[in-house]
Amino acid sequence: MTELNPDGGVSIDTLVLDDKLAKIRTQISSKLDNQKHLAIILSAVEENIEEQKNDKTPVSYFVSFLSLLDQCIQDDQIVDDNLATTTAYFLDLVFPFTPKALLKAKFNQILAKLAQPLTHPDAQAPLVRSTIGALESLLLAQDQPQWTSTSAISPKRAFLGLVELSFDPRPKVRRRAQEAVNKILSNPPASPSPIHIGAQLAADVSLRKLKELLHQFKSQKKKESNKELNSAIIHCLQLITSITSSNSWPPAQIETLCDVLLEISKTSDQFLVSSAFGAFEGLFKSMTNTIDVDKFANVLNIIFDLKPSINDTHLAASWLAVIAKALESFVSLSPQVCIEKLPTILPTVASFLGSNSKDIYISASQCLIAIVSQTIPDQLLLQPTQTNGITGEIYELIEVTVGFISELIEQELFSIKYQHATKEILEFVIATILKLRSRINPDFLSILETVGQWRTNEAENFPHNKEAEQLIAACISTMGPQVVLSVLPLNLTGGEGRAWLLPLLRDNVRSAELNFYKTDILPVVEFFDNKIKESTNKESINNKIFQTIIDQIWSLLPHFCDLPRDLTTAFDDLFASQLSDLMYAHVDLRVPICHALRLLAESNIAYQEGALADDLLMQQEFTVSEASKNIEYLASKSSNILSVLFNVFSSTSPESRGFVLETIEVYLQIAPKDELANTFDKVCGLFKNAMDEEKPETKAKPQTQAKLSITMMDLIVAMAKHVPATSHNALFAIFSSTVGLKDNALMQKRAYRIISKLAETEIGQGSISNFIGDIENVLIQTIEVTHNSARSARLTAVLLILEILPQTDLYFIPAILQEIIMATKDINERSRELSYQILIKMGQKMNEGGIIVNSKVPGFEADVPNSQASLTEYFTMVSAGLAAQEPHMISATITAISCLIFEFKDLLSTEVLMEIASTVELFLTHNSREIAKSAIGFVKVEVLSLPEEMVRSNLSELLSKLMRWSHEHKGHFKSKVKHILERLIRKFGIDEVEQAMPEQDHKLIANIKKSRNRSKRKQEEEATATATATSANPEKKFMSAYEEALYDSDISDEDEVDIYDEDSNRKNRGGKKSNQFILETGDEPLNLLDRQALAHISSSKPKKFGKQDMAKSDFKTKDGKLVFKEDAEDDPLAGKTSGIDAYLDAVKQAPVRGQRNKLKFKKTKEEEWSDDEDDVKPKGKVQGKSKITKPKQKFKSRKKF
What we know:
Layout: H1 12-25, H2 33-51, H3 58-72, E1 73-74, E2 77-78, H4 81-94, H5 100-105, H6 107-119, H7 125-140, H8 144-147, H9 155-165, H10 171-186, H11 199-219, H12 227-244, H13 254-265, H14 270-286, H15 293-305, H16 316-333, H17 335-350, H18 358-375, H19 392-413, H20 422-436, H21 445-456, H22 465-479, H23 481-487, H24 501-508, H25 514-521, H26 523-534, H27 541-560, H28 567-570, H29 573-585, H30 590-608, H31 616-621, H32 624-651, H33 658-670, H34 673-694, H35 708-719, H36 728-738, H37 745-758, H38 762-770, H39 772-781, H40 791-803, H41 812-823, H42 829-847, E3 851-852, E4 867-868, H43 871-879, H44 887-904, H45 910-921, H46 929-945, H47 948-953, H48 955-962, H49 973-988, H50 990-996, H51 1002-1021, H52 1023-1032, H53 1041-1047, H54 1062-1070, E5 1077-1078, E6 1097-1098, H55 1107-1111, E7 1117-1118, E8 1121-1122, H56 1139-1144, E9 1152-1153, E10 1159-1160
Antiparallel strand pairs: 1-2, 3-4, 5-6, 7-8, 9-10
Helix pairs in contact: 2-3, 2-4, 3-4, 4-7, 6-7, 7-10, 9-10, 9-11, 10-12, 11-12, 12-14, 13-14, 14-16, 15-16, 16-17, 16-18, 17-18, 17-19, 18-20, 20-22, 21-22, 22-23, 22-24, 24-27, 26-27, 27-30, 30-32, 30-33, 32-33, 34-35, 35-37, 36-37, 37-40, 40-42, 41-42, 42-43, 42-44, 44-46, 46-49, 49-50
């Protein structure tokens, strides 16, 4: 195609075609017959082209496949349907790349060949569908003279056939034909008319067909329902949608179409109505050019001329929906013209609010809401400037429109005529206020006053107080509290009080004037304070009301500080000093004042960073530059603010000062670096003095409040990521001196957090890199002195160090490896999770290569040679733990290996995997249950993760060791072994597994066979119900790939039986009757017609939870913190001996399959697993204390240290 490739060579189209064909060639060995057949036919055609010594061009493929299609259809018979379908598929693929000149010149011959499969009665859907695609490309290539030709074989005749195929009963054929019609009409040949010559033909055929079908629909009896007729109407409407969406519907037939579509909208069939709306939407959306404005306006006029009666229950709601859709499309075409039409449109639509039918006036309200929300773009609400394109004319148009809407609401909709629809009218007014924002002032003030009086006059019992409050709230958020309170004053100190406005103000004030709060609202606090002081009865109801009002007024302060317009003038030194004094004097005011101070800075920072960049009106009323000035102003006062906050922080109890720290962190962000450095130095000085003073204290001395050193350390941690790099030396010095304090776990935890905080910034990461050698040494030296409570903080720091560990410091990995392995068995869930992340990160680092300087590893001789880092070397290091003397260490090592094998199995050689597997399998014969449990977990990972051939070669030896635990009831060994057997059977087949098993255990295989067969039968019986429930309620069963690998099973929970108990099998065979129970979810009876009804029907009797059940979940509290006992018998993880179980604990709430394959979750201490527990606990005995006590109130601090 030289027109696309003027320089010669291979054209772009040829390259695209080659790419498509290349993908088909790769399917020559596909397991799917249809894909393989395509590749074979393509190969044969290409061989033929090569034999004829032709190039593989689009023309060569076109000629070859067209002649092949000829051979498939001879004497009006399809000789080879499969070959014909494949050939048509390739023609559909090749036609778009065939030169248009060829398709025009040989139109008659090509059409004659394509017509055979299209008109043949025996042609299958795939053949017809592909041929339609080829015909589409053929028609797209024809020019205007050929379309206007009157010959017997012409594009117009072919297009008519395509339109007829758009009514085909076969879904895929029909859809493909409709798509072809749309594409052809959307791409008309060059001509004076912008509309395709075939559009009139398609419109005539589809409209005539639709009228005939609609006549048949009307003539059928009311109770009759002809599904075929309804389907035919929907198919016809789909074709009309294809035509209208291509902007090709003839203007002369628009009115007729709208009339028919509205007639269809009257029907009660939701599918017909939906299809009619689709045709309308296609008509509206097709008009996207400015030249279509008059055409669109004409369509709107036609639709308004078809306006039904306001009480027409069949047509009114549909008509309103069409109006909303039409205006939504019209505004994108010409927003100004659309807004100009609102004064005529809104009253017409609003008249339907007077309907007697609730459905109709609700639809009218929704239509009005849609019109106002969608037809006035936010851009047009802006004030006119030289850059935003808003002219004085547009500004005046919006002013007039807003004035008209307010008059319509106040004079018409608020009249007695529409009293029955007050709720819906208020919803429309709310939507209007939220759309027009500040432009409603002052036009809507009288509306606000009217609704405010309705809400204030409680004697009349206004039934729509909720909507009235929502309207007032919308006014507060758009016009501001000052404007609203000028119309509806609070009158708290006298007159008709509106205390109910206080919660509305609290929830809706934003970007208001802080000075208004200072001068008009806050003084009321003093008035009520005096009232309380003057009262003789401090517990009186009036005093409580006064105190509630005071609390509500203070709760407004944070919201007036949310992006205030007058920050630099309102937040002066005097006001800041007053707030500081109040925080010192009144502990209960610390929360709202700190919240206010935090929002003061936070809101401006967020706004400067683009938080409301999409809000055009806000951007104009409050510029980003103003927010920047506010931040600079606050930064100039940050030093004083921080001093006050530090003092408040020090005097607040540790359990409830998290909110103070959050405020401190915000001001640390904006504080000037030089002032921040000075402040940091002062805090460090106070910290040093506190440490020196606390040294002589005896350990036995009880701590009534937090030590000053801990408080100062909290502030140092908070400042760590904000201080300049010049202060980082002091930070690392503090870290080094405090991380090794044996008797101070709280200090250790905070010391490690210095590293975590520093790593959050690029400057901090750079400083860590500079001092990384020293940090590594400190971490290595403090292994033995780390408290368990500081373990997770330490592991977090270790993980961060490993992220930036240079290849020259790989000795750090073996130096701390043992600690990390042991941490996999830690009691703390976070510690276990981090230990697995660190093990994986170490593996990744070792896999990157480098030199390990072994002489630097503690305990190694100075002359130990260096070693090369690799993944194999890493596994050798980890495996060294298998030679430990303590079962706990061996178990932890096996757990670590299991995790690493699952993670790195694809990067290890077969020899290494075999060696690791054979070594760990030896521990299956160990007498320690703790070790054996971890080894069984490893076997499960091995079976699921390692190559199939590797497991098969070792299957007999593996099973001989594994089956030793198949009869062990304690510790869930038998269920774990059984799950492994199930997976082996799934992988290798039941016969191969049975052959590899010891002969004395063949009985287990027999029982598995029985359970699988029984499961299969039951699944077949309940296939329909199961499929329905599964499709309706899809569940995510597992939280990770590793967990799915461990817990997924081919036998369902309810079908599984105990393969070790023949008696249970006999018991389960007896009764086939299944008891079903309805789960109670509340006071409402179960709706059996609801789709979710199945979710409330259970095959097991639902348990009713009482006080005793809830009491089991209570923890003892001390000073607002959860406290767990440390006694051995109460340790919730004391029985956690399996390494794999410990790994799974890293995944939150990991379910574990029990003896009967039921998913079980870790419960309370009396139900925890251990090696020594019995399978069945005796019933009737009270375990633990039987005393019933009221649980203490729990308080969880927002910040943890």
